Amino acid sequence: MSDYSLTFRQFIFNKHILSFMALIQIPYIVMSAFVYYYVPIYANGQGLGETESCMLIMISSLCSVYLSVGLTNYLSNKIKDKTIYLSSVITYIALVMFAFNMTVPMLVLALIMIGVANSFGTPSRVGYFTNSEEANAYGKNRAMGIYNFVDNIGESAGPMVLAGIVSTGFLGGMVKLVLAFAGMNGLFALSRLVSKKREKATMGI
């Protein structure tokens, strides 16, 4: 338990929390909109019906559901907090692969990869956020309310971002977006590494 408390304002503008939401949470949610926003558009363009479109989306969803508990437990024990980065990397690779080869078989492979990434990525991000010192200081239940609100922002922004990519060229737009989001993820990882080194130095370790 934390021995101090945070107000709403202090929690929202805390450097760790704010950077996590901006550099990890929102980019991942925006990219996840590919499944629900772009897949139906692509399927329609390929002459596939609504049923086939739903089946494609279900591929990703089923991977997320059935692999969630096992993969989350295994990877959390093996690489701990690095799971939040691994899920993003897998998603980025899947999207770039599809952008270079926009065929139905490649889409199926990309959706499987995204589903696998979601299976452990979503619970890992929630776990990282709620188990943080700041969330404990503010209150886990209230912190989760803010987390869900930010998720909603990402879900709303995702279709708009992808719509821009579709209109300007999917391959070029997706590669640029992946590079930008990967850079944001790397910036967060670097900031956490520096912060931990400072903490160790302060403690004289």
What does this structure look like?
The protein has about 200 residues and is mainly alpha-helical. It has helices at about 10, 15-45, 50-80, 85-100, 105-130, 135-140, 140-170, 170-205. The protein has one domain (about 10-205): Growth Hormone, Chain: A (Up-down Bundle), CATH 1.20.1250. The mean pLDDT is about 90.
Tally of individual helices: 8
Q: What would you say the CATH architecture is? A: Up-down Bundle
CATH topology, what is it called? Growth Hormone, Chain: A
Largest sheet, if any?
none
| N→C terminal distance | 23 Å
Query: Mind telling me the CATH class?
Result: Mainly Alpha
* Percent in helix: over 70%
How would you classify the helix and strand content by structural class?
A: mainly alpha
Describe what is shown at a glance.
By secondary structure, the chain is an all-alpha fold. The chain has helices at 8-12, 15-45, 50-79, 83-100, 104-130, 133-138, 140-168, 170-203.
Please write out the topology:
Blueprint: H1 8-12, H2 15-45, H3 50-79, H4 83-100, H5 104-130, H6 133-138, H7 140-168, H8 170-203
Helix pairs in contact: 2-3, 2-4, 2-5, 2-7, 2-8, 3-5, 4-5, 4-8, 7-8
